[in-house]
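Friendly challenge for the regulars: who can give me the C-alpha cells for this chain first? No prize, just bragging rights.
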Amino acid sequence: MEAQYLVDSNVVIEFLSGSLPDVGTQWLEEIVAEQSYCLSVINQIELLGFNGQAEEMAIVENFINQSSVLPLSKAIAQATITIRKNIKLSSQMPSLRQPQVVHQLHLLTRNTSDFQGIEELVLIDVHQM
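First reply, four minutes later:
Bragging rights claimed.
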C-alpha cells in the first residue's frame, strides 16, 4: 500500500514506548501493518541521534529499518522555503521537514501547534482520537 501518513518523531517514540492512548495505538498498529506510513530522513536523524539505552535504540533502529524513509529533495526544500517565508513556524521545527506537503501525506504528530497555518497540511494528533 502507498504511504498516506508521515509519522513524526514524537509519535514514533510514544508508540514504541507504549505511551500512546489505546485508540491511537490500535490505529497506528493498523497503519504500520498496512505499511501505509513513512518517516522522513529528519525523523531518522532525530530518532537515532538520541543517546538512549542500547535495547531502546535497537527497537527504534528496527522500526526505522522496517519503514520507508523519504529523503530530502529539491521539492521538499522549496516547499519548506515557501512555507517559512509565509508563516512564522516554531523555532523547534527543523528545516526541510515538509515532505508531508510535497507528498500529500497526513502528518501524525503530537505537536500540532508547530504546524498551524499550513493550509496544505492535514494534522492528526493520535492523542485526540
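The first strand starts at residue 5 and ends at 7. The longest helix spans residues 22-34. Your move, everyone else.
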